[in-house]
Amino acid sequence: MHTISLVGGTPRKILDLAAHSELHHHIFCYSRPLTSAEFSQVRQVFESKGVPVHVPSATGFFSIVKSLLQLIKAEKVDIVQGYFNRGYIYCALAVLARPRVRAVAAFVGLAQELPAMERFAVTGALSRMRDYLFVTGAVRRSQESAYPRLTGRGCVIHNGTAARMREASVARPNETGCYFISVGGLNSHKNMNILVKAAAILHRRNLPFIVDIVGDGPLRAELAESIRQKGLADCVRLLGYQADVGSYLAAADVYLHPAHREGFGISVVEAMLAELPCILANAGGLPELARHNDSALFVDPHDPAKWADTMERLANDQELRTRIGRAGKAHAERSFSAAKFGALHDEFYQDVLS
Questions:
Q1: Whole-model pTM?
Q2: What angle (nearest 5°) sits at the alpha carbon of residue 216, between those of residues 9 and 272?
Q3: Can you tell me the distance from the alpha carbon of 44 to that of 31, in angstroms, rounded to the nearest whole number?
């Protein structure tokens, strides 16, 4: 892993995996954390859950490889699983030096354009992998298009998780209107600006509502300015990072996820487990998480009018909200449980070792 956090979906799902796996898992962080104090706190959480976290003693490329090899030897590691491009490269070098070890590349996002030299290095690293994991069929198709050697290889295992714990009581911000919530980073692919545009349409229609956006990121200032310019400060709020997401999900009426480039979307599953009706972008891996008009509603990620219409539809139809919320929860419990996630991974790893 590049680093660990309690925010990102990938580190959190490793905690779920370790809790529901019969195998022993370690995390190797090949990059120094931004702040040592914050990293130490997060590290304590992982290690309290039985997931040791290892950090190389130095940050140079060869020092990182040396530290990884030392970890493999000390812990008698059988499988190294890489995430993201640098992770694939480190895993490939590890198996060159330790041929008995099997390497797996895990793909959690859609393929991106790379500079020629980086693409060459990643292509070479992927050729050293024993097997491949994809979090959705959309991610698999995207990566196969970028790296044809992956075609027909590996398998899809959807992420699994448990419902977010409710730690406190969040007061509803409005008594009469609909309370919408969205959880995600404030970056371009999460597409939160479409919610601001949809909210402006609903505001002109005089619909009573609140949209709370939980999360932080590089576009926060830009989004805040857009909210100010559109006169939406009373009905669209940027809450920043919140540790107690479960309490916000429990208070809300509808969950919104407008990302136009999403490999999976673990926060969607958490919202479904909270029995929230979800409006999702019809893009990336999101259509694999639910069925339209049954366990969720899907909307073009780039059409603010359609977002506004769908939000208004749910705001005005309590029966529809209840039906979709219940169907979504049942589907998430059946398809995306942490126990199923762990069991499928254990089967996959046994195949890798066979």
A1: 0.93
A2: 45
A3: 17
Q: Which residues contact 123 (CB under 8 A, 6 or more apart)?
A: 147, 149
pLDDT at 32: 67
Quick count: other Cβ atoms within 10 Å of Cβ 318? 11
Domain count for the chain: 2
* pLDDT at residue 33 in the model: 62
With tokens 């039985």, the residue in question is 50
Q: Are residues 344 and 244 in the same domain?
A: no
**What is the CA angle 246-236-291, rounded to 5?**
55
Q: How many residues make up the chain in this entry?
A: 354
Q: Which CATH number belongs to the domain containing residue 346 in this structure?
A: 3.40.50.2000
Name the pairing type of β-strands 53-54 and 27-28.
parallel
242 in the same domain as 143: no
Instruction: Provide the 3-class DSSP secondary structure of residue 161.
Output: strand
206 and 132 fall within a common domain: no
Task: Give the chain's end-to-end CA distance (angstroms, integer).
Answer: 25
- Quote the domain boundaries for residue 120: 9-161+338-353
Low-confidence ranges of the chain (pLDDT < 70): 32-34
User: Do residues 183 and 148 share a domain?
Assistant: no
Residues 62 and 37 in one domain: yes
The mean predicted confidence, pLDDT, of the chain is 94
Numbers of helices and strands, H then E, in the chain: 13, 12
Beta strands at 79-83 and 131-134: parallel, antiparallel or unpaired: unpaired
CA distance 98 to 92: 10
